[in-house]
Design brief:
Helices cover 40% and strands 10% of the residues. The protein is an alpha+beta fold and 60 residues long. The protein has one domain. Strands 1-2 form a two-stranded antiparallel sheet. The protein is globular and about 30 Å long. Bound molecules: zinc ion.
């Protein structure tokens, strides 16, 4: 899962984790091109919704 921390979570571009900005809500790296964009917000919502769904459906 190291890849997850060295790629922009929006566009999957490789990043230097030491220099990359992070989305603080998700604690995932985001590149300069994606930071603050609607794409970032959409993707973040997608990921958090996915997590929430996982919790809701975990009982089945
Ligand atoms: Zn990006």
């Amino acid at each position: 899962m190291n890849d997850f921390t060295s790629r922009c979570f929006v566009c999957q571009k490789k990043l230097d984790p030491a220099k990359a900005s992070k989305n603080l809500a998700l604690n995932l790296p985001v590149c300069k091109a994606c930071k603050g964009t609607d794409e970032e917000k959409d993707k973040a919502r997608e990921l958090t919704d996915g997590l929430a769904d996982g919790f809701v459906c975990g009982c089945i």
